[in-house]
């Protein structure tokens, strides 16, 4: 009993308005329990009663007793309304490609449940309660990731989710992929029979793109923190100056991201003996990738914060159609399912993260070029016999080049659907998936920079700051100094894993008060 009470106390509450990035991430990645708020349950019941009253009066309501899309003029007889629910799920569940990772599916389930719990969708509380039970029991629908145009919601993906609720489709309940009915049975969950309006409420929303977006925003913030640490390491290895990070510079151009990064660079480099050793050298200015760290990384921070604001609103919004307002028993057909706000934010996020990688790769190139760095060519003592860090820079360049292709804005590529009834689509789910791919590529670029800067600092006789030396020691505990050529694939993946976990940024934060994103 104590374990159950503790689980309930720590559960994320589904109430339609209080989800945060942190809570979604915990449910998605840590399998934190969820529970439906009692007041939300009451709102849903009132909304359902409003819908049923309208149907009793013979009202014609889109997707409740009509066809969908360009079939809106087709009136569905009352005797067929339950059959319509299954037909909508079956016909729309035609997504293709590799399945979404479990963390994305869990985020999607939570976000759809939260949107329905606002009480404007006309569905019974039992729909959300079942989604919560599936989350808590670990029943995860198999959802192929391709097929959404990002308007009328992420229809195809959410239909695959919905099929499992009625005992169809496929799911993984811990024993591998199996029929949805079998996965539910494995956890003792009964399939649900959908009532009028419930199928369209399940599939009509932006939860695939928003689920991807929430996770991407969290990962982008962490990556931006690590990018700052990597930049500080490289600057010190290249004997750059921190003069450009004087707070007075940002005070006269006070973009919040620039101010944050400028202050962080001062903190990260505080106490560096390397910095002190060349304080009065003849060099007047550093290259842009050293001198403009606050301006460039700071701009990416601003974009990440913008994207976080957008997904923060979206995750607590009602995004299906039509919407029911029980206060005056009205029903409104509108367009909250259109993913344009998220689509633009995801394109912006992808571009901002790409810039972190582009910026990082140029510092790697500078460190391995002895003409620019003053360090041994390719950061090896045995140039010619050994290639040192030559090819890791190639890999970074390749990843950046791949991202240059991926940053093409998905939101600029609308293609009409449903016989031009749906004549503008956001393609936001494509943009969100691209942002996820870009994040993964840039994580590896920053890992390469951290390895290169650690190697470069080995050739400098004096010590860097306490923060940088602690980060370097953590890297060195798992990635040995490159004295002789070896395959560095595992080294790069190791440091990339340290970046994803937040371990290295945590070390910097504890060492110098570095401010996290």
> Any idea what the shape is?
elongated
| Secondary-structure content class | mainly alpha
Indicate the percent of residues in helices: 55-70%
CATH topology of the largest domain, by name, is Fumarase C, Chain A, domain 2
Write down how many β-strands occur, each being a DSSP E stretch of 2 or more residues: 9
Low-pLDDT stretches are 1-8
Whole-angstrom Rg: 26 Å
CATH superfamily of the largest domain: Fumarase/aspartase (Central domain)
Q: Please give the CATH class of the largest domain.
A: Mainly Alpha
First-to-last CA distance: 38 Å
Q: Any idea what the CATH architecture of the largest domain is?
A: Up-down Bundle
| Count of separate structural domains | 2
Strand percentage lies at 5-15%
Round the mean pLDDT to the nearest integer and report it.
94
- Placed side by side, the strands forming the largest sheet appear as 4-6-7
Largest β sheet strand count, sense and barrel closure: 3 strands, antiparallel
What is the count of helical runs?
22
Offer a quick outline of the entry.
By secondary structure, this protein is mainly α. The protein has 22 helices and 9 strands.
How is this structure best described in words?
By secondary structure, the chain is mainly alpha-helical. It has 2 domains: 204 residues, Fumarase/aspartase (N-terminal domain) (Fumarase C, Chain B, domain 1), CATH 1.10.275; 292 residues, Up-down Bundle (Fumarase C, Chain A, domain 2), CATH 1.20.200.10. The protein contains 22 helices and 9 strands. A 3-stranded antiparallel sheet has the order 4-6-7. β8 and β9 form a beta hairpin. α16 packs parallel to α19. The protein is elongated and about 85 Å long. The chain starts with a helix and ends in a 5-residue tail after the last helix. The N terminus is likely disordered.
């Amino acid at each position: 009993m104590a374990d159950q009470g503790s689980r309930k106390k720590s559960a994320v509450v589904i109430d339609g308005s209080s989800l945060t990035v942190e809570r979604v991430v915990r449910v998605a990645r840590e399998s934190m329990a969820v529970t439906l708020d009692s007041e939300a349950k009451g709102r849903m019941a009132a909304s359902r009663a409003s819908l049923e009253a309208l149907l009793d009066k013979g009202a014609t309501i889109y997707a409740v007793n009509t066809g969908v899309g360009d079939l809106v003029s087709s009136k569905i007889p009352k005797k067929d309304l339950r059959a319509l629910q299954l037909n909508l799920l079956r016909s729309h569940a035609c997504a293709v490609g590799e399945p979404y990772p479990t963390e994305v599916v869990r985020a999607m389930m939570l976000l759809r449940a939260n949107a329905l719990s606002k009480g404007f969708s006309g569905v019974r509380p039992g729909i959300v309660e079942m989604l919560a039970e599936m989350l808590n029991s670990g029943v995860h629908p198999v959802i192929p990731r391709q097929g959404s145009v990002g308007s009328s919601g992420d229809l195809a993906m959410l239909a695959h989710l919905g099929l499992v609720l009625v005992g169809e489709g496929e799911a993984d309940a811990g024993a591998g992929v199996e029929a949805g009915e079998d996965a539910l049975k494995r956890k003792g969950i009964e399939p649900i029979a959908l009532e009028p309006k419930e199928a369209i409420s399940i599939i009509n929303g932006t939860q695939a793109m928003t689920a991807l977006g929430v996770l991407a925003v969290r990962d982008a913030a962490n990556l931006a923190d690590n990018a700052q640490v990597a930049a500080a390491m490289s600057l010190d290895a290249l004997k750059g100056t921190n003069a450009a990070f004087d707070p007075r510079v940002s005070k006269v151009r006070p973009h919040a991201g620039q101010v944050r990064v400028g202050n962080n660079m001062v903190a990260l480099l505080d106490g560096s003996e390397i910095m002190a050793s060349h304080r009065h050298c003849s060099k007047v200015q550093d290259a842009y990738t050293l001198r403009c760290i606050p301006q460039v990384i700071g701009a990416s921070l601003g974009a990440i914060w913008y994207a976080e604001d957008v997904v923060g609103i979206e995750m607590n919004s009602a995004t299906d159609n039509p919407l029911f307002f029980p206060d005056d028993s009205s029903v409104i057909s509108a367009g909250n399912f259109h993913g344009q706000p998220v689509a633009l934010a995801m394109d912006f996020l992808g571009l901002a993260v790409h810039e972190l990688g582009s910026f990082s790769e140029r510092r790697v190139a500078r460190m391995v070029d002895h003409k620019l760095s003053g360090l041994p060519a390719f950061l090896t003592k045995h140039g010619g016999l050994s290639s040192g860090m030559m090819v890791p820079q190639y890999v970074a360049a390749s990843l950046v080049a791949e991202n240059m292709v991926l940053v093409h804005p998905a939101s600029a590529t609308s293609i009409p659907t449903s016989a031009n009834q749906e004549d503008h689509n956001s393609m936001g789910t494509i943009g969100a998936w691209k942002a996820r791919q870009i994040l993964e590529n840039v994580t590896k670029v920053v890992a390469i920079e951290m390895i290169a800067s650690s190697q470069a600092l080995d050739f400098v006789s004096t010590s860097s700051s306490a923060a940088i030396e602690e980060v370097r020691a953590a890297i060195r505990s798992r990635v040995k100094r490159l004295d002789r050529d070896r395959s560095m694939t595992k080294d790069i993946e190791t440091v990339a894993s340290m970046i994803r976990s937040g371990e290295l940024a945590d070390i910097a934060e504890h060492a110098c008060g570095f401010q996290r994103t």
